[in-house]
Write a structure and sequence with these properties.
This protein is α/β, with parallel strands linked by helices and about 700 residues long. The protein contains 29 helices and 19 strands. An eight-stranded mixed sheet has the order 12-11-10-13-14-15-16-17, sandwiched between helices. The protein has a six-stranded mixed sheet with strand order 1-2-3-4-6-9, sandwiched between helices. Strands 5-7-8 form a three-stranded mixed sheet. Helix 11 packs across helix 25 and helix 13 runs antiparallel to helix 14.
Length: about 700
């Protein structure tokens, strides 16, 4: 296969990269580019060289298949050196995307043209890395330090018109890209401009105030907590303002290597691959195809239903929001309108985009109006009786081929499906609140759910820009089952001597954006109380159970909504409450537990070990396909710090044998709730990786 084809048009050489689907900078592409540069440089008839991408894009970045492997020459550095040494002008012609190493390839060319729809960016920071092909140096000299800071530390792409304003793109081309690039090359030659030395540009660096960098660090201090790469980027950019291009490039290279070998990068790259692996459903029929979904209905106009409707409208689908109460519909639609107004004011979307999305959302109080919908998602109160009644009514009005989905977070999908005559068309789609913001969707397979329905739900979640993970139909699925396990241990830690604010601080210091008890207060303690009441009959006689949460609810303290919960609230500010501490101490006394101070590291170890052991039980039961799926659920749905890779990856990096020994110790002290999972116990015999322990079987099949 020719990864780079070489042609000539009016003495302008054209090197076309062909490595579908994204023209990644793999070894074949790098070799082909080196050959093309050398060929153009050696041909006396060639006046300029154009580098362009074939297919749908320029060069979207590094080849992900090369991650973690020894790098083989020629490296990107060699290509950059060859372009720098080339005496003839080299023009990058960009369409689609030019990201990471692909953009650095374009920046190392002397000139850049692009179609208006193209996007450029440096997304390396999202993998715990930083630009490593002189990207920081090009951005500083072409766009200036302010733009360099924003682009390289955010990882967000910018459109070609904005990039032209910044000085990254030299011309926007209308019509055919190659023809426009050839015309641009001829203009350069005719005007005598030809090659230019970008490395010598220094105008934007002459009067840079160090306060710019100090202010940028301070502004992002909270967002970058626990990360390495963005701090290294800022340090590199600041220092490079006083260095030559070559000196700055060496500084960048050293910082890149430090990031490359950091635990944060390993964790973020793990999640990058885990997210893609989660989309692959094991044992799904090979010939199954997703069904076409053109219209959607959402039952329930509350916070969750409104967020789900916004997600579909934002993806270009028509949505009907359904509620029995006209008042609830009016209130729900007004909340949606306010959410769009807020998004526009923050610059997240344009007013035109908000108007289009809002126009796609209709409302009705009559189920008959949604009979022709392709997908109907129920998002009503978390009560099995109410949900079954909704599904009975939907079964009576929905067309035969419609998919009926429930947004339940804990309830039995099969019980809900049994209320219909079409259990094969019923599936769980557990969105996370706020649904229009949170990326995770648990796709829950019932006992009778068809392969086509699973494939459609997964594809639809991806169309919404979400990250879907398949889960089996077991109480709590993946995420809430683990939450229940470590939440139980947090309650026991309260009885034994900890306080809610200590536990929350420990979790936040580890990297969670919010502590467990503050999260409960925000969600509403009455909601969780109702779930506990439903589960009471299923508790094993003699099983340890903490009464503290129930006692708080019995006082009418339901969290933020009532101004009191585990904390006392002034507005949204959570304040430690002495009355809660007294309540906890009294509960401990009633249980005969002698309270003692618990060190922070013990609090953290116990909570994380509970997460990991429950995750391993989930694997053993076939509720999750693979350990990395659990990591995706916890990183994108429950706030586990992404720079730690998820609970299962954290355990693997810590040492599965060490985790197993800790679980066994807790089992001896605390009893059967700490029964070591079989897969975790096996790991103690040989320090195996989770990937070697996955059952590789279809969820609940």
């Amino acid at each position: 296969m020719d990864f780079v084809t070489y042609s000539n048009q009016d003495d302008i050489a054209i090197a076309t990269v062909s490595n579908p689907p994204v023209n990644a900078l793999g070894l074949g592409v790098r070799r082909g580019l080196m050959d093309a540069i050398a060929r153009a440089a050696a041909d006396p008839n060639v006046k300029a060289l154009i580098i362009v991408g074939g297919g749908k894009t320029f060069v979207a970045g590094a080849d992900i298949n090369d991650f973690g492997k020894p790098y083989v020459e020629p490296s990107l550095y060699r290509i950059i050196d060859a372009l720098t040494a080339c005496r003839k002008p080299v023009i990058a012609a960009i369409h689609g995307t030019a990201l990471g190493g692909g953009l650095e390839l374009a920046l190392s060319c002397h000139w850049r043209v692009a179609v208006a729809s193209a996007k450029v960016g440096q997304p390396e920071v999202k993998l715990g890395l930083m630009p490593g092909g002189h990207g920081t140096q090009w951005w500083l000299r072409l766009a200036g330090p302010e733009a360099a800071l924003e682009i390289t530390t955010s990882g967000h792409p910018v459109g070609a018109p904005a990039a032209e304003d910044l000085g990254i793109i030299d011309r926007i081309v209308d019509g055919d890209l190659v023809s426009g690039a050839v015309a641009f090359a001829k203009e350069l030659i005719a005007s005598g401009r030809g090659k230019r030395d970008i490395t010598a540009l220094s105008e934007r660096l002459r009067h840079v105030d160090s306060a710019l960098f100090d202010g940028f660090r301070k502004k992002n201090q909270r967002k970058w907590r626990g990360l390495l790469a963005p701090w290294k980027i800022v340090d590199c950019l600041e220092a490079s303002c006083k260095l030559t291009f070559e000196e700055g490039a060496e500084l960048e290279k050293a910082a890149f290597q430090e990031c490359e070998h950091s635990p944060q990068s390993k964790a973020l790259i793990h999640l990058f691959f885990a997210e893609r692996e989660a989309a692959r459903i094991l044992a799904l029929a090979t010939d199954v195809q997703p069904m076409t979904i053109a219209s959607v209905a959402v039952i329930g106009a509350g916070t969750m239903g409104g967020g789900i409707a916004m997600s579909f409208a934002g993806a270009g689908l028509d949505v009907i929001l359904v509620d029995r109460s006209e008042e609830a519909l009016s209130r729900g639609f007004e909340t949606i309108r306010k959410n769009y107004t807020t998004s526009v004011s923050r610059g997240s979307i344009t007013q035109a985009s908000a108007d289009r999305a809002l126009a796609r959302i209709g409302t009705t109080s009559n189920y008959a109006d949604i009979g022709q919908a392709d997908l109907i998602i129920e998002a009503v109160f978390e009560d099995i009786g109410i949900k079954k009644e909704v599904f009975r009514q939907l079964d009576a009005v929905a067309r035969a081929g419609a998919i009926l989905a429930t947004n339940t977070s804990t309830l039995d999908i099969d019980q809900i499906a049994a209320a219909t005559a079409r259990p094969e068309r019923v599936i769980g789609m557990h969105f996370f609140s706020p649904a229009n913001v949170m990326k995770l969707v648990e796709i829950v397979r019932g006992a009778h759910t068809s392969d086509a329905v699973i494939a459609t739900a997964m594809a639809m979640a991806k169309k919404l820009g979400k990250i879907p993970v398949l889960a089996g139909n077991a109480e709590g699925f993946i995420g809430n089952r683990i939450l229940a396990a470590y939440g139980r241990e947090a309650d026991f830690l309260l009885e034994e001597g900890a306080t809610p604010w200590q536990i929350d601080r420990v979790l936040q210091d580890f990297g969670f954006p919010m502590g467990l008890f503050a999260m409960r207060d925000m969600a509403g303690l009455d909601v969780i109380w109702r779930i506990r009441q439903q589960q009471a009959t299923r508790r094993t006689p003699g099983e340890r159970y903490s009464p503290i949460a129930d006692q708080i609810c019995e006082r009418g303290w339901f969290g933020q909504k009532t101004g009191r919960g585990y904390y006392r609230y002034q507005g949204r500010e959570a304040i430690p409450d002495p009355e809660i501490e007294a309540l906890i101490e009294a509960a401990s006394g009633q249980l005969g537990i002698i309270r003692a101070e618990i060190p922070d590291d013990e609090v953290l170890r116990r909570l994380l070990c509970a997460m990991v052991n429950e995750g391993a039980h989930i694997l053993d039961a076939g509720v999750a396909q693979r350990a990395s799926d659990i990591d995706v659920v916890y990183a994108y749905g429950y706030g586990f710090p992404t720079y730690r890779g998820g609970p299962m990856f954290w355990a693997q990096q810590t040492g599965l044998d060490r985790i197993c020994e800790a679980v066994r110790t807790y089992h001896r002290i605390h009893g059967d709730s700490w029964q070591p999972a079989a897969s975790l116990a096996r790991s103690a015999m040989g320090e195996k990786r989770w990937s070697q322990l996955d059952h590789r079987r279809s969820v609940n099949q």
